[in-house]
Amino acid sequence: MVVNLARDVQAFTSNVFLVTGDRTVLIDAGANFDVAEMVRSRVDGLDAVVLTHTHPDHVGNLDTVTSTFDVDTWGYDTTIDGVDHAIADEGTVELGDHEFTALHTPGHKDDHLCFYAADPGILFAGDLIFQNGSFGRTDLEEGDREALIESIDRVREWIDGEFEALHAGHGPSVTTDPFEHVELAGRMARQV
């Protein structure tokens, strides 16, 4: 089960997905709200925190979460403060009841990862792809439009046209024709 703990939060934050099942994981920690209390109100504990990337709005609550639940953090680059364990490109990570493939998808930030599982048909897209063909900013440090386009194309090659849910780092999740939103993001990112 996937729940966005930041859905109704009125603060500058990313989405924060609590994925429950065999391995209870928090995808991104968000910022500027008490995510630890929100986790505690739903589950007894966490097995890990998994990061899509380390922009402040995604990791502002990281220290609080890791100390509250005594868990380690997994991300792409262990040289960044707070990332305890590396997830390799095309490595696998168990989120809830399913094994997801991690795809290194730079362009928005160098350490950006997306996570995809064909079964159950879920993509955690971080800040790469959003609803309605929107895509991650490239005007920040480490941003690179060409790399972002290549990353969107790479995700497009991995996903199945029948996949069921795109969970983005900001905004609503997409559960109606998410494949079309990925394709549109690729087209929109190419426009000047």
List the defining traits of the structure above:
six-stranded mixed beta sheet, 192 residues, 22% strand, Metallo-beta-lactamase, Chain A, alpha/beta, globular, metal ion binding, 2 domains, five-stranded mixed beta sheet, 23% helix
List the helices and strands and how they pair.
Layout: E1 2-4, E2 17-19, E3 25-27, H1 35-40, E4 48-50, H2 56-59, H3 62-69, E5 73-75, E6 85-86, E7 92-95, E8 98-104, E9 113-117, E10 122-126, H4 145-158, E11 165-168, H5 178-190
CATH-scheme architecture of the largest domain: 4-Layer Sandwich
Q: Which geometry do the CA atoms define? A: globular
Number of strands: 11
> With helices defined by DSSP (H or I, 4 residues minimum), what is the helix count?
5
* Model regions low in confidence, pLDDT < 50 over at least 5 residues: none
Q: What percent strand?
A: 15-25%
Number of domains: 2
- Biggest sheet strand order reads 1-2-3-4-5-6
Give the class from helix and strand content and strand pairing. alpha/beta
Helix fraction bin? 10-25%
**CATH class placement of the largest domain:** Alpha Beta
Task: Report the major sheet.
Answer: 6 strands, mixed
Mean pLDDT: 97
